């Protein structure tokens, strides 16, 4: 039955006035409107008025009517469960009547309203919705058909899972065949909607869609050359999605699909070309990529390189003709929010290159960079930070270079020769980008070209075009590993000289690219930079006075990376006097609630760790402010938990960054931090942070606990009985980094507590053994777990040794690859104690123990004695003949090492 509801004249007038005022640019007016709207929500039929303005008040202008609908949408989002049934019924009924409104704007707004109600789980309580929309698709009135399709596409986008899971009404049985009928509709917008709707069900491999898949593919090929760009884009999207979930369905047609995508990657419409270009990125991840794409490379590669050229629009947006802009202040909205990465304890792998930073470093050990990120930073401006054809083409070339490696070069080298030396700057620029994109995949084949190319690129750092200088910075950073491995005078020195000039470039984009490239170079070169430190620091410090807001944040990063890379070599009075004044000046002018503190605190954390005692003159105010930031955040968190309406939730990043900086201080100052800790309530605050609901807060608090344990255990000891049960509860590998830091902290505490660790072993040991035996545990966590088990065995061998059999093999394989250090030393001593207590526990896996022992380069003399004793007693016990049978299984390098070092 239809409900009659009619608005009252004065109520209608009041709402129209409000809608007009809310379009005012004045913020005070807007705030007043906001408050008024909140008050009006208390009247049950306020939402009926909004609906009436949207669908019935045709005398008003469309933007005002649409706005009324958007306010209604927000009310539905926040207060839906509180609305009276008579109101929701009125809204639903009006929506269905207005789906075909003559105005496209009103139709779209009604579509948004319908979807918002549907996404509130209301598909079940609005059973007539889908059949009604489905019926409207057959309407002779175009507006009704288009409006219904618009609403259906939004519902498919927002509620695809719910539609697919609904086994009661089985809506997809009706919808998918219906959508397929419209692939050949006379209106391109309808054709586009029909494909768009079905595309929403590919990713979850919807059963109904799979049943109709042949018909879907046939229809896709029919519209593949459609005149309408949006239709072609949706066809490309469908093929990219199918490639990811059902490549088997595409295989019979793969040759034709590749031909089609080659054509579409060159489409005159950039959105179609971008969608098609995604296909190459996806295909590169499939195991059949080499086989199916190999024959097409000679046509694909030139297309990708052409796609890497800046479009006319890009150049306008990037102000590509503006050379000097370093005095123009940044717009605040152009600065992307920065997210702090909490500290994670990682082990250094054994490597031939002697550069090592300390064992606790931020960011977890072994996650590769995401391809897309690389191309979002290489040449980025927020006006263009959207993924575009240029970035997608570069990322595709990058992943294809990894798949095909040097096989690409016969095709690429002639293209590079032509583009790199081209007279048009934009073509030259795209060549330099392509050269950077292949750096990882084609490195071995590029080696003989680099002695000629690197000097050419260093020369391009002086190009008159800012965009060329910027991309050259990025490309050179991709080859920095090679540059560092050559004699310094040949490439590293000229590169550094020119990059440092670019850090002071007159163009902000070039400054940014140069700073990022320099940070990459620092990570590669590490202590090789020590001879040039004075020169580097003078440049970076001068940049402080020159940079606008956005690049300052990147400068902090370059300084922090420098400190991580050269470590204690930074601790010289002339360097400290250069570096610290500008950092401390920034520290003093930034307010406690300014998010620019994040990158500055991260930077100071690295600097404090590197300077060690050199940071002493600065440590007290820095320490106090960190403690105060943690305390303020905890207070705000408590206030918000108790009175969510009165107090906003705090931004916990302030607390996380402060915890990480305290870790840096504890690590750098070591015992000197004791007098700061003794006069503060940090232990009490730490106890709260360790129990915070947010994983990143716990992660950073465990890192700090481990560092304080090493630096001033006398202050940690009284809290152990409170802390250890919390650490035990956090040995949950679902939160890898939290688990990792908790594990590491347990190991550090056990070394200091010694035999007094015994009562706590039942709280942690079985979880640690579970973690080391779990499949797919990340390397960093395995290594830390093995070290901690070893340390527990070192201090309480009788409590851990009975479980030896359960972890010894995984333990040995986890620790064979880390380089000799204190942590490895204590862990191996623990293992030897446990073997002495329970020799039977190691017998079945003794070959793994031999292999782990052989991974030591230079064990301390007494540890070497212990190894020798265990190996020889094993040999004696099994007898000469059995030992020979056993040692014949060793790979030759293992036999040689054991015989040379331990005489077995």
Automatic annotation (TrEMBL):
Residues 349-362 have a biased composition (Low complexity). InterPro entries: ARM-like (IPR011989), ARM-type_fold (IPR016024), IMB1_TNPO1-like_TPR (IPR058584), Importin-beta_N (IPR001494), Importin_beta (IPR040122). SMART domains: IBN_N. GO terms for biological process: protein import into nucleus. Residues 328-337 have a biased composition (Basic and acidic residues). Residues 33-101 form the Importin N-terminal domain. The keyword Lipid metabolism does not apply. It is found in: Cytoplasm. GO terms for molecular function: small GTPase binding. SUPFAM superfamilies: ARM repeat. The keyword Ribosomal protein does not apply. Residues 327-381 are annotated as: Disordered. Its main location: cytoplasm. GO terms for cellular component: cytoplasm. Residues 367-381 have a biased composition (Acidic residues). Keywords: Cytoplasm, Protein transport, Repeat, Transport. PANTHER family: IMPORTIN BETA. This is Importin N-terminal domain-containing protein. The lineage of its organism: Eukaryota, Metazoa, Ecdysozoa, Arthropoda, Hexapoda.
